[in-house]
Amino acid sequence: MINIIAIKVVPRAFVLDCNDVFARFILVWQNSIKRDGWSMKSLSRERSSSLKVFFIFGPQAVGKMTIGEIIADKLRLPLLHNHMTLELLQPLFGWTPATFSLSREFREAIFSKIAKESIGNGLVFTFVLGFDLKEDIEEFNQYKAIFSDKGIDIYFIELEAELEERVYRNKTEYRLSKKASKQNVAHSEKELLLANEQHRLNSFPGEIDEKYYYRLDVTKLTAQQAADQILEQFELN
After folding, report:
1. Helix and strand totals (H; E) in the chain
2. Where along the chain do its domains lie?
3. What is the pLDDT of residues 44-100, one digit of tens each?
4. What whole-number distance in Å separates Cα of residue 82 and Cα of residue 164?
5. Can you identify the CATH homologous superfamily of domain 12-233?
6. Which of 107, 113, 197, 226 is the most exposed place for a label (fewest CB within 10 A)?
7. How far apart are CA 9 and CA 6, in angstroms?
């Protein structure tokens, strides 16, 4: 769950550290693209005239990252999943307000760079959204505005699954290999169950009114099946 708490006083040394962390994150993110056979230059050369931006959201362990990876691979897009920024910062600042506020700043900087300079073909971004949390909605709308203000359409994909299935997926080897902060399974399961009790992590019917919006129950679907349905829905397969 994303929780944003304002930090009013920031020491000079902290600002310098933040700059270093931001530079480090950009390198990590670019290297992750290169490991998949990409470079920022090749992305720019091969991009189409219209950016494809995907916002994939839903509760913890519903399959956002894995489905996002398949869509990103199919459409030759980079993936930015929720934990990439958080787990870069957590070793430095712990699970403190600084980690969450800096994570938001990093994401906004990345999105702005892509939107303003049309870098690459677009982006797949996955995240958890608390519909009952004002700060989550504000953050979501800020991310959305970065692209929509530039006339860039966003594909909104909302995933849902039964709680029992999400508890099972929370323990899968692939998820744990990608998200270091989830490797304490007992703790992450406790967080998952608590978030499920305390927050509304899926929308009400009709709550989201977007041109390109698709909601999908993935309880009985593999990640590949889910990704195929999403691409078919938007005629991108």
Report:
1. 10, 5
2. 12-233
3. 434 434 799 999 999 999 999 999 999 999 999 999 998 899 888 988 998 899 999
4. 22
5. P-loop containing nucleotide triphosphate hydrolases (3.40.50.300)
6. 197
7. 9
